[in-house]
UniProtKB/TrEMBL annotation:
The keyword Transcription regulation is assigned to this record: yes
PROSITE patterns: HTH_DEOR_1, HTH_DEOR_2
Organism: Dactylosporangium aurantiacum
Top-level taxon of origin: Bacteria
Entries under SMART domains matching the protein: DeoRC, HTH_DEOR
Boundaries of every HTH deoR-type domain copy: 3-58
Protein name: DeoR/GlpR transcriptional regulator
Amino acid sequence: MLARQRQEIILDLVRRDGGVRLRDLMRRLGVSDMTVRRDLEDLAGQGLVEKVHGGATLPAGGVPAAPAAGASAVAAIARQAVALVEPGAAIALSNGALAAGVAEALADRPATTVVTNSLRVAGILHGTRHTVVLLGGVREASGALVGPVAEAAAGGLNVDAVFLDAHGVTVRAGFTAGSLAAAGVERRLVASARRLVVLAGHTRWGVTGIATVAALDDADVVITDEGVADDAYVALTDHAGRLIVAS
């Protein structure tokens, strides 16, 4: 794996979870302590992360801007996602950078009802024509609301589609979440929906989060970007109901 590819994955994780640990990156990327430290130094030098003891966090001031290619991929995935949303529909958006991209693309479109556990998504849609249902719960560092309150609220809803921002994707583990608490809420959102649409940029492939949210076969649609590897393309085509490669 090239340094640029490793750093894209690291940035993706920092944006999603608010921070990363050195030992977790070593295991996830399959590289040495020194390699990860060099990657973090490069990213810190660009102002994209802040190095801390044992890892890295978001820089002071919040979420770093994505590199041009990353921003382009997020926008492309978001365009494909909103094309699946019909006016007046009720949808659920999970937490994450791709879900936030969908919220931004949705902001100027016809009114819908949007259920979310993401403070970022709710903030983007605040003041628009959409009705936002923000689940309660305990705030994670990523800005997600999780825990029993959020799970109970999600479990009592029925939506047309859930747009799941997957933390990781593998054939064995399926679509995974970055924390046990996030997985609990996301499973409830998936169960509440008639259709499961998974948002998974190419950097999510091969990443295994701590808990499975859904199997590959459960996805009605998976939206990824043009960086998707051949093995990922084949696996998603074989298992998901429909694969969309956003360009």
